[in-house]
Design goal:
The chain is mainly beta and 197 residues long. Helices cover 8% and strands 38% of the residues.
């Protein structure tokens, strides 16, 4: 994240994203597949035979295809797209709202204070090993741990969707997009960006 300044001199907190072009690998229609969607490919890797067969229209002679495939549901815009057509940062305009989906940072196994914002035990004298404990988890009946209780466990690495992030800046030459606010995930992670038209 960084900040940019608008015409009035206001500082805007933005996340800068590198948006390389993606290629349409498949157009799914309601008649053939039961729903309308566009599958796009990103990245590059050597494919095995089943993957190469699926991407046969876009695979090069070295058997290299796309490392990552994702489906989007673009409304009526799928009729204008064909296999092999490119989608790049030029489809976004400053000021419009977009949806961003990604995987949040993984934090490993965490206790209840960090994971659920529990207060922990009393910090007074006479307490022993209770500072960050969860406390009671229920009454005597039923004699088991109820499902869904807030307890220690794995935290992060969840799929997260952020709605209505504003496009603050678009650089079509360098394929850079700046969105106002934060997006989920680590540096170098992949996110999906789409508008809701």
């Amino acid at each position: 994240m960084t900040q940019i300044f608008d015409e009035k001199g206001n500082a805007i907190p933005v996340t800068v994203l590198k948006v390389d072009p993606v290629t349409v690998t498949q157009v799914l229609t309601e008649e053939k597949s039961g729903y309308n969607a566009v599958q796009v490919g990103y990245g590059s890797k050597k494919l095995n035979k089943p993957q190469a067969g699926h991407q046969k229209k876009v695979v090069d002679k070295n058997n290299k295809g796309f490392a990552s495939l994702r489906e989007f549901y673009p409304g009526q815009a799928y009729k204008e797209l064909g296999v092999g057509s490119k989608l790049d940062v030029s489809q976004f305009e400053p000021g419009e709202k977009v949806v961003v989906r990604g995987v949040t940072k993984g934090k490993g196994f965490q206790g209840v204070v960090k994971r659920w914002n529990f207060a922990g035990g009393p910090k007074s004298h006479g307490q022993k090993h209770t500072l960050r404990t969860p406390g009671s988890i229920g009454s005597a009946f039923p004699q088991r741990v109820l499902k869904g209780l807030k307890m220690a466990g794995r935290m992060g690495s969840n799929k997260k969707t952020i709605l209505n992030l504003k496009v603050a800046y678009v650089d079509k030459k360098e394929n850079i997009l700046a969105l106002k606010g934060a997006v989920p995930g680590n540096k170098g992670g992949y996110v999906e960006i789409f508008n809701r038209k």
